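Fold this sequence, please.
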Amino acid sequence: MRPLKPKNYDMDVLSKKRLLSKDEAAFYISVGMTTFTRIINSGDFYPLIRIGHNRGKVFINREKLDQWIDEQDGSMKTME
């Protein structure tokens, strides 16, 4: 199986969206999906929201993501 080609998104478009997909959010903060999944599962990642039945579809609130990024003090480095 071929590895998936990384997606490229337009940062101007992403910076105007309110909700981002997981792929878009990972691109937005310049990390891979494995690292982003670790961030989501860390327990203190509050920008995540779910919309829909059961567990719902996962979205990331971009404004809260920006705030979360500002609050980080290098603790993300220990996750990699």
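The helical segments are 11-14, 22-28, 33-40, 62-71. The chain is about 35% helix and 15% strand.
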